[in-house]
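Structure in, sequence out. Go:
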């Protein structure tokens, strides 16, 4: 482990404590023990000491017992100058160094040569120097609240200096863009500091630009810690001296980290060791041994040898900082108001995927180091390459990573594409998985839209809405037909695996179902009730997905439904389900049956993968999916059917379903289930063969597959009747559908 770091930290802490003791003694000599000491305009005394120990240092004399405490905490410098078996002595010594720094800074305010522009928010050009020193309580209140309400995700303490002013400006900008405060202190061996480099590069510094120059020497970094401690006391309601509470609050609520640029000296090691106590990790661009996770911290304490250009990303990753992106950087407006927008043919510049082409959207997760956050790539023609009225295949390939990410979350994030992309004016998005269909308006293209902007939107919104689980989002947009096809294979394989995860669960033994109201932006009365044996009609959300989604966001669109007493087992009606769904649909309906197509069927929004429809003459049920564009025996093609079934209505005789549901034991089981299935488009039938064979065998009709008609056998009821009779289809012998209504 990390012996050198800890050893050097202990060594540095000894030096600091010795030095500060000397300064205190000299000050007492000069001013006497009763001389008042304080940081400017604060009710928190010397904040680090006050927060951790509860001791109020008000005079020079009050510093003496604190000095005692430092001595107790301080470990002896290890004999061979670096070796120590535990982190403990290093952490305690680091804490001693922080207490000493706290006092050393207070001493600077004694006398006339205070190096700080006390109580100023920004240095001005007329000021002799740039250093602000400790923030007073007014600044603390104004700024600290931003850490609590989330408008500032955290702060970085930058010590040392970058390789040059331009590199410093770049690091600062990267942090500013993420709304992170930058506290600057200390200098490097060349006598320059990060803050001075920023000034040199023409960057405006001060609290107002969130680039705060604390001080030129090492001890001034303590104002970062002091700020965090005061925030814990003010906003966290922690009691001074409740050191566990204060440390924990800072670790959990104030996401801070140290970026060490350039060679690190013993004194800085000491400060880094002190910071570990607060859960504040140090990320350095130089090479020295790392300190990996121990104790309550699940992340690294000291990470080294990170190139300057990657240090911000790495720091955010280590500290698990949640970034929100306030402005989505696209050339058109964005907001929920645009979600329901339609784009007619003559307003459209290009159509992507859909019935005339093909496409997919797909999200999956990878290890953190294999995803580059914010990287957007286009493979194939971009928008400038397509003429007005053009058509392209589309693949939206999303790679996700996060420390808390679970594979179970993949489908949920994937399903967000619909509502996230629809939020942009000029983008219409329909469908999911391999039935996506999009249109981009002429207006959006004129404003400067390119396919990379799909990435911009998904990246920003996924960070904002799923920050708790997502740390990195990388997006590839594919419009090259071969590449779309190639990746489609991978997607389909994954979707099948996702669909099959549920195979051992059933509705009877599950007490909790889930609702899905994601589609209410389009179909305000629509609610999907998702049970283990009945996935959402879009096919993209099954019971596990809804459960995971609820885990991510308990106020989100997927709510648990305690199914309660059974009202009708055959129809699939439960008291709890009705009690939930009726208000959730805006009281548009009186009752919901999960398993029936005829009695109170579920509503259909518009995303259904397929539609089931009763064929009364044949006494059976047909299913048609989106990919089939021909006629069907019910007299309507898919799009006509979709028009009359969708929109959040209950339409007895018709119901929107997912393709996977065909293989469920609960597939329209109220009306006899799979035995009723008498017509499918050929392609869908072939794709569903395994499911149909398995279910056919279960219901005692192993050759059911051969009895199901397709368009090759006919597209009107009369013709297929002949086929069904010939094949001996079981539906002909079943109870009359007409009489079951
Ligand atoms: Fe949710 Fe149903 Fe819409 Fe799928 S179709 S997203 S399950 S409401
Ligand atoms: Zn829908």
């Amino acid at each position: 482990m990390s012996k050198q770091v800890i050893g050097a930290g202990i060594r540095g802490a000894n030096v600091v404590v010795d030095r500060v003791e000397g300064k205190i003694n000299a000050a007492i000599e000069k001013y006497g023990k009763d001389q008042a000491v304080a940081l400017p305009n604060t009710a928190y005394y010397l904040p680090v000491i006050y927060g951790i120990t509860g001791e109020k240092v008000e005079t020079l004399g009050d510093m003496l017992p604190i000095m005692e405490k430092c001595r107790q905490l301080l470990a002896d410098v290890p004999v061979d100058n670096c070796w120590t078996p535990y982190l403990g002595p290093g952490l305690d010594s680091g804490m001693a160094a922080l207490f000493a720094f706290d006092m050393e800074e207070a001493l600077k305010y004694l006398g006339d040569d205070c190096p700080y522009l006390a109580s100023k928010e920004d240095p001005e050009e007329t000021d002799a120097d740039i250093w602000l020193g400790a923030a007073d309580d007014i600044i603390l209140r104004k700024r600290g609240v931003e850490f609590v309400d989330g408008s500032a995700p955290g702060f970085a303490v930058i010590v040392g200096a970058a390789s040059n002013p331009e590199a410093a400006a770049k690091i600062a900008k990267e942090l500013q863009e993420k709304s992170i405060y930058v506290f600057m202190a200390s200098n490097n061996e060349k006598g320059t500091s990060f803050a001075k480099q920023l000034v040199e590069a023409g960057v405006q510094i001060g609290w107002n630009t969130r680039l705060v120059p604390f001080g030129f020497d090492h001890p001034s970094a303590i104002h970062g810690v002091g700020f965090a401690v005061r925030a814990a006391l003010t906003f966290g309601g922690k009691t001074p001296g409740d050191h566990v509470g204060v440390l924990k609050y800072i670790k959990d609520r104030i996401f801070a980290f140290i970026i060490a640029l350039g060679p690190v000296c013993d004194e800085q090691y000491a400060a880094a060791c002190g910071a570990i106590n607060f859960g504040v990790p140090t990320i350095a661009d130089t090479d020295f041994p790392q300190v990996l996770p121990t104790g309550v911290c699940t992340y690294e304490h000291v990470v080294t040898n990170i190139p300057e250009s990657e240090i911000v990303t790495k720091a955010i990753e280590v500290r698990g900082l949640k970034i929100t992106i306030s402005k989505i950087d696209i050339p058109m407006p964005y907001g929920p108001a645009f979600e329901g927008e339609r784009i007619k043919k003559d307003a459209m510049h290009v159509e992507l995927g859909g019935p005339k082409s093909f496409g997919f959207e797909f999200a999956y997760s990878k290890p953190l180091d294999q995803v580059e956050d914010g990287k957007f790539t286009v493979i194939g023609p971009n928008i400038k390459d397509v003429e007005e009225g053009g058509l392209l295949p589309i693949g939206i390939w999303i790679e996700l990573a996060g420390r808390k990410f679970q594979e179970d979350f993949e489908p949920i994030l994937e399903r967000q594409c619909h509502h996230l992309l629809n939020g942009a004016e000029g983008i219409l998005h329909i469908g999911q998985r391999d039935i996506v269909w999009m249109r981009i308006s002429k207006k959006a293209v004129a404003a400067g839209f390119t396919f990379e902007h799909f990435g911009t939107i998904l990246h920003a919104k996924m960070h904002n809405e799923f920050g708790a689980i997502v740390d990195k989002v990388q997006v590839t947009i594919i419009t090259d037909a071969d590449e779309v096809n190639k990746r489609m294979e991978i997607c389909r394989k994954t979707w099948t695996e996702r669909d099959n995860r549920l195979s051992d669960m059933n509705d009877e033994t599950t007490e909790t179902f889930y609702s899905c109201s994601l589609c209410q932006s389009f179909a305000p009365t629509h609610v999907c009730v998702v049970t283990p044996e009945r996935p959402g009609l879009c096919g993209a959300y099954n019971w596990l997905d809804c459960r995971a989604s609820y885990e991510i966001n308990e106020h989100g669109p997927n709510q648990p439904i305690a199914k309660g007493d059974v009202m009708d087992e055959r129809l699939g009606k439960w008291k709890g389900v009705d009690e939930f769904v009726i208000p959730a649909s805006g009281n548009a309906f009186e009752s919901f049956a999960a398993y029936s197509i005829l009695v109170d069927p579920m509503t259909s929004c518009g995303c259904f993968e397929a539609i089931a429809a009763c064929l009364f003459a044949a006494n059976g049920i047909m299913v048609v999916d989106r990919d089939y564009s021909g006629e069907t025996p019910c007299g309507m093609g898919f799009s006509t059917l979709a028009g009359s079934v969708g929109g959040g209505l209950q339409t007895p005789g018709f119901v929107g379903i997912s393709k996977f549901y065909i293989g469920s034991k609960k597939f329209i089981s109220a009306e006899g289930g799979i035995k009723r299935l008498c017509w499918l488009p050929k392609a869908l039938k072939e794709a569903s063969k395994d499911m149909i064979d398995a279910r056919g065998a279960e219901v005692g009709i192993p050759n059911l597959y051969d009895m199901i008609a397709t368009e090759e056998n006919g597209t009107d009821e009369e013709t297929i009747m002949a086929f069904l009779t010939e094949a001996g289809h079981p539906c002909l012998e079943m109870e009359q559908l007409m009489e079951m209504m």
